[in-house]
Amino acid sequence: MAIPLTDKPMSSLATDIMTINQGLFTSTTDKWATPQILFDLLNEEFHFTCDVCATEADKKVDFYFSPEQDGLKQEWTGICYNNPPYGQKIKDWVKKSFEASQKGATVVCLLPARTDTRWFHDYCQYASEIRFIKGRLHFNESKNSAPFPSCIVIFKPKKQKTIIKFWDLSEERKNE
After folding, report:
1. In the chain, what are the domains?
2. What is the pLDDT along the chain (176 residues), one digit of tens a residue?
3. Which residues contact 28 (CB under 8 A, 6 or more apart)?
4. With b meaning 16 or more CB within 10 Å and e meaning fewer, what string describes 69-81?
5. SS (H, E, C) the chain
6. Distance CA 153, CA 110 (A)
7. Strand partners, 81
8. What distance in Å separates the CA atoms of residue 3 and residue 172, rounded to the nearest whole number?
9. pTM over 0.90
10. 154 CB-side CA count, 13 A
């Protein structure tokens, strides 16, 4: 026999669940500044030449495309870092990352690990490497972690097969 956990009617519980679920997938911003320690680890490995989606305040590389320049309209060359807005246009940024790699660029993306989305399946399957980050990142120097998991998706010009890694940043910090 099931023991009820609440006296609320089922219709009220369904409304509560929908409200909770909406709260998990919303935010007051679609811009999440890269944690410096994460960028430093990636830059040490890749030596970025361009930040394709940045502002003067949050740029990680001296050469960058600002919102006014619209990185989606620019040609990406060299070794690019991409931490795009996490809203509706994320699919355009991931598509551009894939397309730039087909033209010779290496593009390293910091993305929400939304493996259930069309953009993830349409483009990330062509990545050279995907690193799922253990735990949740602290963006914008926040004390609280992000409400979503993150991953690093690396698009290289010559893809052999996709390498999947599970990346523990705390282990990386211990090795410094």
Report:
1. 31-170 (3.40.50.150)
2. 444 444 555 444 344 433 333 433 444 555 668 888 899 999 999 999 999 999 998 899 999 999 999 999 999 999 999 999 988 999 999 999 999 999 999 999 999 999 999 999 999 999 999 999 999 888 776 778 888 899 999 999 987 788 999 989 877 656 65
3. none
4. eebeeeebeebbb
5. CCCCCCCCCHHHHHHHHHHHHHHHCCCCCCCCCCCHHHHHHHHHHHCCCEECCCCCCCCCCCCECCCCCCHHHCCCCCEEEECCCCCCCHHHHHHHHHHHHHCCCEEEEEEECCCCCHHHHHHHHHCCEEEEECCCCCHHHCCCCCCCCEEEEEECCCCCCCEEEEECHHHHHHCC
6. 7
7. 51, 108
8. 47
9. no
10. 20
Residue type, 30: D
